[in-house]
Design goal:
about 290 residues
Length: about 290
């Protein structure tokens, strides 16, 4: 005991050195096994090359589905991502948050390259954050909680430096009200030079503001989807078919747009009665024509 006590400080240094070596080895193995790379900080451009949200990638592998990595380069302070449900908006946002948190935690990131900056505050508002459950709202309605979450995020951003992601903000109110709120919020977020904001929505009537990037998920390959109509398959097979027809890539708004509805086509692929589908398509075209007029 006297010998151990005499060497106490030396033994503690040995223990700390072994611990540091063990952690360094674990980080190296993690980076190697998951094909991770060192993030680069201090960039005014957010650039992702083949970024992967690992939980989704593992789910796709387990289900035998193809996984599409994320590629994005963003110089603007704010961006809006349009797209239909099942089009990949949520996964794209989660990928960005996952990479940012991983990088700021001091780890390598699952991407071929990731350029970003360090932000004092990282915020995500969306269904998959678990903060829209009634028990966590503190007595607020769904819309009230969304707005309160936005207020808190805005206050953080105004104080300087925030990485904010909003998945379907204001989706709990009418489309006209939501588009008005979103248009104003996006314009304001775009003026915060030291923050980065990304917002996904399916409301296409959002007013376009200068200095904001407007993107969309490339979405369903509708030409190929036409050949799959009427195929009688189990639900799991239908989901795999939709996954194979989806193009989970982010492009600028207006790129390869054909004006059709991914949502109606997906509903048809999932087995919605063709009479309902035909009527929905007719109503969709009428509304689109009125909007164009």
């Amino acid at each position: 005991s006297r010998l151990v006590e005499a060497e106490h400080e030396r033994l503690q240094r040995y223990a700390r050195a072994v611990c540091a070596l063990d952690l360094a080895r674990a980080r190296a193995l993690l980076a190697r096994d998951l094909a991770m790379t060192r993030p680069r900080f201090g960039s005014s451009t957010l650039a992702v090359r083949s970024g992967r949200y690992l939980p989704c990638q593992w789910d796709c592998s387990r289900l035998g589905l193809e996984y599409t990595p994320l590629d994005l380069e963003l110089t603007e302070s704010a961006a809006v991502l349009f797209g239909s449900n099942m089009g990949g908006k949520t996964v794209a946002l989660q990928t960005l948050v996952f990479l940012q948190i991983t990088a700021q935690a001091g780890l390598f990131v699952p991407a071929a390259g990731f350029d970003t900056d360090v932000y004092p505050w990282i915020g995500y508002v969306g269904d998959l954050a678990g903060d829209r459950l009634p028990a966590t709202r503190g007595g607020l309605s769904g819309f009230g909680f969304e707005m309160r979450s936005f207020v808190e995020s805005w206050q953080r951003a105004e104080r300087g430096g925030a990485f904010l992601v909003f998945d379907e903000l204001a989706h709990t109110t009418s489309s006209a009200e939501a588009e008005a709120i979103l248009s104003s919020a996006i314009e304001a977020l775009g003026m915060l030079a030291d923050s980065r904001s990304l917002l996904a929505t399916h409301f296409r009537g959002v007013q376009r503001a200068s200095g904001v990037r407007y993107l969309r998920m490339l979405g369903l390959d509708r030409a190929r989807a036409e050949h799959a109509m009427g195929v009688d398959e189990p639900l799991a097979a239908r989901i795999r078919r939709i996954n194979g027809l989806m193009r989970y890539r982010i492009v600028d708004e207006g790129t390869d747009a054909d004006g059709g509805s991914d949502a109606i086509t997906i509903a048809a692929l999932l087995g919605l009665d063709e009479r309902i589908v035909s009527q929905a398509e007719r109503l969709f075209r009428l509304r689109a024509d009125r909007g164009a007029g």
